Automatic annotation (TrEMBL):
Naturally occurring in which organism (per UniProt): Rhizobium helianthi
Protein name as annotated: Gamma-glutamyl-gamma-aminobutyrate hydrolase family protein
Pfam families: Peptidase_C26
Record keywords, A-Z: Hydrolase
Species lineage: Bacteria, Pseudomonadati, Pseudomonadota, Alphaproteobacteria, Hyphomicrobiales
UniProt-listed InterPro entries: Class_I_gatase-like (IPR029062), Peptidase_C26 (IPR011697), PuuD-like (IPR044668)
Domain of life, source organism: Bacteria
GO MF, any single term: hydrolase activity
Amino acid sequence: MKRDHKSKIGPPVVGVMTDRRSVDDVAEDCVRVRYLEALSQSAGVAPLLLPTDCTDEYVAAYMARLDGLLLTGAASNVDPRLYGGSSAPPETLDPHRDRTVMAAIKAAISVGLPVLGICRGLQELNVALGGTLCPEISNGPHRLVHTENLSLARDDQYRPVHKIQAEGNGVIAQCLRACAVDGHVLVNSLHGQGIGQLADTLAVDAYSTDGVIEAVSLPAAAGFVAAVQWHPEWFHNEDGVSSSIFRRFGAACRSYQQGKMIAS
């Protein structure tokens, strides 16, 4: 008798990158709940928190068992020394996360795992694939202010503040064009850093009006590998672009999960 795999498969499991923080002088690996809500409610996947400071062997074991990987945003910056830059103040960095996430990105791509990066996650993807970052993306003539206004209430900090325009035909560009008005989409902006030199293997999916790269994808990837500089998780349940991105990511994770079931 044939076994019915479909009825027992359950939702795809997506690994979620955490941050290392110190709370009352005790190390904790943490993530904002809003990311988990966006994954479960809009993407229809089961989030699973990944610890920081993992060995490459443990990272490979995680990637072999997951159906997707979410690279979350964070208050910390990627260590500039990872892309040939100068050292930065320790309080701005998270070396524990860096150690895990750089290995996780490479391992995930090598097995064809769907990957979605958000804010720091976009920057991590670019650095892991050989690109660099600009430490102060708002500086310079004709640049927009990309950092948030901390005097506002939290929800207001995450409201759309500037236009972006789709580029190419990557998965994020497709989501943007489906929701564009007069060729543009409004997104929020809460980042000090951004992409400097784009990694050779990445393609631009969107620019802001001042030329800052706002979204990227990996054309050579076996499946969904893309990242955005803004925060779609915050209003995932009411913003068309945000919900579209998570739905597409969830569909890619389900497709990957089903492919593994067939292969087994």
